[in-house]
Each structure stands twice: as structure tokens, then as C-alpha cells.
Backbone:
């Protein structure tokens, strides 16, 4: 293809219409997020009229004083923390087992790790619910954690396995030759190498768990995580201001970790967060 | 390490030596916990669900009986249920096609023209909305499409209110208001799954070496020909990967159909209603088999067309 080249960089220059489409797409992607931020400061109580009537910080104080909001935030943080720890352990083990050796059934195991995020969440949700019911388990805190950990493992696995593949195996052998046993090698040689990938995977798992809704509605029973609280809230128009504030808060809690994960794995061949 | 601490670690050390020599044992120990989790908890649940789809639901006592029946699957073909399946299927197809057209220029620009800071910016700018909370994004759209909201305001300012009303009166795309119309629901679906299409296409285009395009030009192809005969076939695996996401995610979604768009159930909402208020898990299970089968057919088709060969 004959590209127009700019004189100084030699980089091909995009036609204006293409550049316009690309940036237009970005605007489209960020527009609803911007609206959520704007409406969090809206003075109006029960409608979404535009242009908005005035600016206020009142609803932040009101949301902070609501016990149901605080309970939901606390529950979501606890669930995400437990699911993340489980996912980090299981994901690292799976990555350590699968990155180098070729053995029978390896592809099937990799496939199995991916299924929970490839299948629609509703299937995972109702499958877990059906199984819990058969076992006579009442939905509670731990059933939520089990559901979340199931689809969080692949986040950690993807990140850690990519890093494992980049560590030369000779490092491990050298450590063993110098007298370290397997555990010491893991702690002193392998762990420092995979640390940032593990952390990035953990952060992604946390973010994924924190705002998961579909599986959670099946496994939560009467518990209200923050996304479930928000969903219930949408049928209560009178509460709109508090809902707007919480929506913005959820947005912040999930985007900050994503940026963090991105910078932790930047410059490596697989960047965290490129697949959800 | 001193001899003393070596003796203390004797058991651990001989254990770790054993693991090093018997690498199969090591592999097994590593694999057992994840395998137990996924093989027992997850696959077990899936099979439990599949099994339940053959159970009998007694309408009279509203309870599930473990008696084998195919009635649930037969029910799927009743007009009302087939309607739900078709409605969901066509929405998933429409969303997938729209996402491809919206995503391709963005992915193409990211892969071929953006570099350095601009590339990083694009990457983060696509990733953030993808990861931003799903329910918050859906909520954002109810705010945007609300009566008196920003879209209505802009259309009013442009003097197009009449045009909008005529458009909303159309069958299959319209509805009473924007937020209860088919087109509104379609827009929200497309918005929410769009990043899942952009990133795979971008990754596929990124792997095309520039020399290939130069070779095509040197051999006399016009830019349009190079695009159609060289670039597009190499982008197909990315398009397929992305469409698996958009297709499957739309098929299984049940929150957006509740929040935006006209009444009329989707597969997801049907599953939710069946298991929730009625407690008819067998019928809900039969409904979940539909997206699994559809996705299976789609994957198989993609494989036959050679979509995965270039991966």
C-alpha cells in the first residue's frame, strides 16, 4: 500500500476520515462515563433533565451516611479480596504446571480455565445455583466467593503464564546448582520474577469481582453486593441522586486498579487487561 | 546455608528434591487444586445443570421431580419460547455486525497509524470503558436516553423531534420512547460489547508485517486491493475472536433487556424468571442450553471457514 509518509518520522499518516472515525469511537466509548460523572453533581432530585440544573456536593455526604451503601461496599470489598486470594493461588499453580510441559489433556485443562469467562455469565450463575441447591447449600457469602473465584482464576493465569514463559529455565537450574532447594528457588528466584505479573493479575481479578453482577445475582441469595445494590436501586427513582454518586464511586474503584495493572505489565509481550 | 539449618530443613529439602526428580509428581501436585476446583466445582455444576434440564417440573405442586423427560426441550419450540430465542438471536447478530463496523476503523488506526504515546493512549482509552463497571455503564445509558435527557435535548435543539418520533414509530426498531425502543437496547448492547471487538481485531492487525503490505503494493496492487486481498483475510481471525465475545455476551445477557427496550423477554430474562419466581430450574436449564448450542455451532462454522488457521 502506498502510504503518505511524514517527512521526519517515516511513520505512515492516516487519512483524515480514518482518524476521525477512530477518535469518534473513543468519544462514543467515554460518553456514558462522562455523563455518570456529571450527574453525580446534579442538584435535581428525581429526573435526568439536560442541561442539568445546578452543581452540588450534597449527595456525596448523603451517600456516605447511608448504612445500606456502606454495607454493600464492605461486602463487595470482602468478596473481591477472598476471590482474589483464591484466584491468585489457583491461577499461579495452574500457570506453573502448564507453561512448560506438554502432556496429555493439557489443552483441555487450559480450555477449562477459559470456559467461565467465555460462556455467558448467566450459565455459570445458574449452573452454580443448581449445584448449590442439589447439595442443600443456602446461598451466602462463600457461595458468592466460589462463583467469583471461578472466573477470576483465568485473569491471574493469563498474566502469570505469559511471564513464566519469559523466565529462562536456566535461572531455576542455576539456583538449584548453587544449593537452593525448590522452595527457596521459588521464593528467591521465581517469585521476584513473576511478582508484577501476579500483582497485575490479582488487581484485574479484584476489579472483575468487585463489579460482577450476573453470576452474583444467582449465588448471592439475600446478600447485597454493590452492583446488586445498584441494580435494585434502578427501580427507585426517588433515590436517583445517591444512585448517581455510588455509580461514580464504582466507576472509580474499578478504573484505578486497571490503570495500575496496565502500568505494571507495560512493555511486556502481553499486557494485562487486554482480555476480560 | 549452615549445617544446622540444613538439618532443620532436611524434610522439606528431601521433599523438594523428590519433586525435582519426579517432575510428574510435581506437576500432579500443582494441578490437583485447580483441577479439583474446575473439574468438580465448575464442570460439576454445569453437568448438574444439564442433568436438571431433563427433570420434570410439576406445575401443580411447583416442585422439581427427578423423573426423566424431554418435555422441557419440546417446550422450547412452542411459539412463545421460540419467539424469545429468535429475538435474542437476531439481537446478538445485529450487535455483532454493528460492532465489527464500528470496531474495524478504530482497530485499524490503532494497529497501523498510532505509535508511541498515541498508541498507549488508545490502548488505555479502549481498555478503561471495557473494564468500567457493567451495571454503571448500563445505568449511564438509561440516564442518557431518558425523556428530557441529553439525547432528547440535542434532537430538540436540532429541530428533529418529529423525525425521531417517525423513526420510533417504525416496527422492529422503534418503541414508545428512546429508552423503551429496540434501537435503544441495540445501541446499549453495541456500546457495552464494542471494546471486546476492538482489541482482538487490533491484535490481529498488529501481527501483519508492514513488509507484506509493501510487497503487495510493489506487485502493483492498489491500496483498496491490498486492503481486500491481503489485510482483510489476515484480520478475520481477530474479527471471529471478537464476534465470539459480542455474540455470546449478548445471547446470555439479562440485565440490559430489563433496563432498556420494550417488554418482551430475552433468553437471559426468561432463564432468570424461570428459576427465580417460579422455581422451574429444569425449564431454565433447557433455555441455557440454547446459547451453548448456538455458540457451539458458531465456533464450528468459524473453524470450517478456516478462521483459526491463521492464528
Residues:
Amino acid at each position: 500500500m502506498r502510504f503518505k509518509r511524514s517527512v521526519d518520522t517515516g511513520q505512515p499518516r492516516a487519512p483524515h476520515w480514518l482518524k476521525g472515525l477512530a477518535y469518534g469511537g473513543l468519544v462514543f466509548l467515554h460518553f456514558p462515563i462522562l455523563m455518570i460523572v456529571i450527574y453525580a453533581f446534579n442538584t435535581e432530585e428525581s429526573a435526568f433533565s439536560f442541561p442539568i440544573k445546578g452543581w452540588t456536593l450534597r449527595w456525596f455526604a448523603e451517600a456516605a451516611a447511608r448504612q445500606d451503601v456502606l454495607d454493600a461496599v464492605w461486602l463487595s470489598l470482602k468478596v473481591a479480596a477472598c476471590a482474589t486470594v483464591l484466584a491468585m493461588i489457583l491461577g499461579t499453580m495452574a500457570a506453573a504446571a502448564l507453561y512448560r510441559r506438554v502432556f496429555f489433556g493439557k489443552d483441555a485443562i487450559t480450555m477449562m480455565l477459559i470456559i467461565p469467562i467465555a460462556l455467558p455469565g448467566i450459565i455459570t450463575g445458574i449452573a452454580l445455583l443448581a449445584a448449590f441447591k442439589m447439595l442443600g447449600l443456602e446461598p451466602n457469602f462463600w457461595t458468592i466467593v466460589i462463583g467469583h473465584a471461578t472466573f477470576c482464576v483465568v485473569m491471574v493465569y493469563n498474566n502469570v503464564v505469559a511471564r513464566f514463559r519469559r523466565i529462562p529455565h536456566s535461572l531455576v537450574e542455576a539456583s538449584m546448582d548453587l544449593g537452593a532447594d525448590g522452595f527457596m528457588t521459588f521464593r528467591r528466584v521465581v517469585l521476584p520474577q513473576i511478582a508484577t505479573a501476579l500483582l497485575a493479575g490479582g488487581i484485574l481479578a479484584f476489579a472483575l469481582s468487585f463489579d460482577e453482577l450476573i453470576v452474583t445475582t444467582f449465588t448471592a441469595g439475600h446478600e447485597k453486593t454493590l452492583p446488586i445494590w445498584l441494580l435494585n436501586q434502578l427501580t427507585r427513582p426517588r433515590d436517583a441522586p445517591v444512585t448517581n454518586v455510588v455509580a461514580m464511586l464504582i466507576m472509580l474503584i474499578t478504573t484505578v486498579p486497571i490503570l495500575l495493572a496496565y502500568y505494571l505489565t507495560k512493555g511486556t509481550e502481553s499486557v494485562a487487561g487486554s482480555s476480560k | 546455608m549452615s549445617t544446622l539449618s540444613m538439618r532443620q530443613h532436611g524434610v522439606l529439602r528431601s521433599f523438594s528434591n523428590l519433586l525435582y526428580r519426579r517432575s510428574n509428581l510435581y506437576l500432579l501436585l500443582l494441578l490437583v487444586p485447580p483441577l479439583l476446583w474446575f473439574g468438580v466445582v465448575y464442570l460439576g455444576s454445569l453437568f448438574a445443570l444439564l442433568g436438571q434440564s431433563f427433570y420434570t417440573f410439576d406445575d401443580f405442586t411447583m416442585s422439581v421431580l427427578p423423573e426423566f423427560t424431554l418435555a422441557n426441550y419440546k417446550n422450547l419450540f412452542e411459539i412463545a419460547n421460540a419467539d424469545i430465542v429468535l429475538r435474542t438471536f437476531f439481537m446478538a447478530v445485529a450487535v455483532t455486525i454493528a460492532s465489527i463496523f464500528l470496531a474495524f476503523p478504530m482497530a485499524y488506526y490503532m494497529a497501523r497509524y498510532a505509535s508511541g504515546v498515541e498508541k498507549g493512549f488508545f490502548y488505555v482509552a479502549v481498555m478503561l470503558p471495557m473494564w468500567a463497571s457493567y451495571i454503571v455503564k448500563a445505568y449511564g445509558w438509561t440516564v442518557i436516553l431518558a425523556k428530557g435527557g441529553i439525547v432528547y435535548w440535542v434532537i430538540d435543539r436540532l429541530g428533529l423531534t418529529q423525525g425521531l418520533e417517525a423513526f420510533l414509530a417504525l416496527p422492529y426498531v422503534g418503541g414508545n420512547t428512546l429508552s423503551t425502543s429496540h434501537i435503544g437496547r441495540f445501541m446499549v448492547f453495541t456500546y457495552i460489547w464494542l471494546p471486546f471487538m476492538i482489541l482482538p481485531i487490533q491484535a490481529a492487525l498488529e501481527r501483519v508485517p508492514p513488509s507484506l503490505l509493501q510487497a503487495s503494493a510493489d506487485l502493483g496492487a492498489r491500496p483498496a486491493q491490498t486492503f481486500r486481498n491481503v489485510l482483510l483475510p489476515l484480520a478475520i481471525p481477530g474479527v471471529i475472536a471478537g464476534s465470539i465475545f459480542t455474540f455470546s455476551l449478548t445471547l446470555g445477557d439479562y440485565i440490559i433487556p430489563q433496563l432498556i427496550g420494550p417488554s418482551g423477554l430475552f433468553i437471559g430474562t426468561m432463564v432468570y424468571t424461570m428459576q427465580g419466581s417460579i422455581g422451574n430450574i429444569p425449564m431454565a436449564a433447557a433455555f441455557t442450553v440454547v446459547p451453548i448450542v448456538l455458540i457451539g455451532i458458531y465456533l464450528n462454522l468459524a473453524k470450517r471457514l478456516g478462521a483459526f488457521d491463521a492464528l
Remarks:
- Chain B touches chain A through 102 residues (CB under 8 Å).
- Chain B has two domains: 3-52, 74-304.
